Amino acid sequence: MQAVSQIGQSVIDALAYVGELASLSARAAGFTFLAPFRGKSMRLGRAFSQAMDVGVRALPILSLITFFIGLILALQSAYELRKFGAINFVASAVAISMTRELGPLITAIVIAGRSGSAFAAEIGTMKVAEEIDALEAMGLNSVKYLVVPKYLAMLVMMPCLTLISDLAGILGGGLFEIWQLDQSYFTFLFATRDALVMRDIWTGLIKSLIFALIITKVGCYEGFSVQGGAEGVGKATTSSVVVSIFLIIFADVVFTALFYYTA
Amino acid sequence: MRHDFEGPMIRVVDLVSHYGERLILNHVSLDVGAGETMVILGGSGAGKSTLLRHIIRLERPTSGHVYIRDQDACCLSEERFNLLRAKMGMLFQSAALFNSMTVEENVALPLRELTHLEDSTIRIMTRMKLELVGLGGVEDYMPSELSGGMKKRAGLARALAMDPDILLFDEPSAGLDPITAAGIDSLILKLKHAFMMTIVVVTHEMASAFVIADRITVMHHGEVIAIGTPDEIRANPHPRVQQFLNRTPEIETAEAPAYLRPSEGRPS
User: Fold this and answer.
1) What's the pTM value of the predicted model, to 2 decimals?
2) Contact predicate B28/B224, CB 8 Å
3) Are A248 and A154 in contact (CB under 8 A)?
């Protein structure tokens, strides 16, 4: 009996968490998309510097990781495809799985670890140091001031990063094909081009937008809900990464199924 | 100074506030007139900082009302109340400077975000505010490079940035040496006389309270136990007030309060 009520309680807690996430993102969305139409000025400066942080500075590590992922993917699929004499399909296998799945997913996981945790730590530290109160006391809305630039930066940068991950992954796969399978550079390029359709790329990009929303709202929400001192900030940072990776994978399942059945 | 409203600048009516289950403010009522300096005195945990946070609506009351310039803070939308807040300044106990910005950027932030002034004008205004609090020449320092007293002054400069007519101070002299604390006191007096500001100061420093106050409110365990001019407070017969004035220690009670007692006799 107690076990059942505990399960029930944790389900209620989880739903409440999702509800609070939704309310935070609704407020942020209001400031992002509705305020400009009501004649409120938008300060884009902070969104630009956020975009530099979450986007441009993540490029080296992200492209290196996805390059290796592409290479691994080529090695693994070659191992199986070789048995069927279908080794020429390695190029298309890599291209399709990078653009449809691994490009967006790996990008989201790297950015969740890199930027989602940074959002939680930044907002959490500000909360502990009374800086959030100071913002509110000045008459500045803390959601508008802190969350909106992050949303804008993430919504613009995530698709861009995902495209670059796709590219780096395909190049990683290409490296294997060119060296190991003695294919020419052009054979690989044409095989990749023939394998991909636009749908593969844009379904990946839609996913990346969803992941951008998840990472931002989880990171910011965890930051705002920090209680206590430095320990609270550490906990929030950790749980922002854990929760956003879980929600990313969950959303991935839902959207992949959706794209599969609507194809 | 003329106002477009009647009555006191700040009016707190029957305010009740809880922190979780714990009662923090118990039916607190208080008026602060325009141009008046009100000092709220009380021991730690008396609820005085919470009262200050209610005045600028960083907390929501369980019941009761706070009126700022005759407008009920509890019923205003956030946007409307932010218009009021723009004319209020608050100095936090920790100064609450933004650690990622220089002193100048800290002071300029409200001007940059809430006004449409030219950048050059903002720079001049920022310098003026910093000069006013005696901090000329530290514009480019980071908050972590400042001493405690300088942080307080920088926080005050930021609170003054929008030329407020209500200033709230949370423990302005806490953690400062007596000389620096006296410096902050004289700064408060200067602001009061030069700009006719309405000032509310929360403190437990008796010396500072009697220097700056027009009226003093004494709080104990979330209740107001005395309000009056400094002379009236000195003459107040309430035992708690006298205990506070004479710095008498708490008489050791044999019975610990219920919430401190370990639960006994419960099987572990």
Assistant:
1) 0.85
2) yes
3) no
The answer to whether B166 and B88 are in contact (CB under 8 A) is: yes
Residue B113 half-sphere exposure toward CB, CA atoms < 13 A: 22
For residue A212, is it within any domain? Answer: yes
Q: Cβ contact (<8 Å) for A130 and B114?
A: no
CA gap A153, A211 in Å, rounded: 13
Say how many C-beta atoms besides its own lie within 10 A of residue A46's C-beta.
15
> In angstroms, rounded to a whole number, what is the distance separating the alpha carbons of residues B180 and A183?
77
- Residue A252 forms part of a structural domain: yes
pLDDT tens by residue, B206-228 = 888 999 999 999 999 899 999 99
- Of B86, B92, B113, nearest to A134 by CB-CB distance is B92
User: Are B110 and B162 in contact, with CB atoms under 8 Å apart?
Assistant: yes
pLDDT tens for each residue of chain A, 263 residues long? 788 888 888 888 888 888 888 888 788 777 777 766 654 555 678 888 899 989 999 999 999 999 999 999 999 999 998 898 888 888 889 999 999 999 999 999 999 999 999 999 999 999 999 999 999 999 888 888 899 899 999 999 999 999 999 999 999 999 988 888 777 888 888 888 888 999 999 999 999 999 999 999 999 999 999 988 889 999 999 999 999 999 999 999 999 999 999 87
In this complex, the residue of A41, A131, A141 whose CB is nearest that of residue B96 is A131
Q: Domain count for chain A, please give it.
A: 1
Is B96 close to A130, i.e. CB distance below 8 A?
A: yes
> Which domain, by its residues, includes A144?
44-261
In a domain, A224, yes or no: yes
Among B85, B92, B99, the residue with its CB nearest the CB of A139 is: B85
Instruction: Assess contact for B226 and B39: CB atoms under 8 A.
Output: no
Q: Answer yes or no: do B98 and A126 touch at CB < 8 A.
A: yes
Length of chain B, please?
A: 268
Residue B136, Cβ density class (10 Å: 0-12 exposed, 13-18 middle, ≥19 buried): exposed
In a domain, A21, yes or no: no
Q: Tell me the nearest-neighbour CA distance from B55 into chain A, angstroms.
A: 10
- Which residues in A127-147 are b (16+ Cβ under 10 Å) and which e? bbbbbbbbbbbbbbbbbbbbb
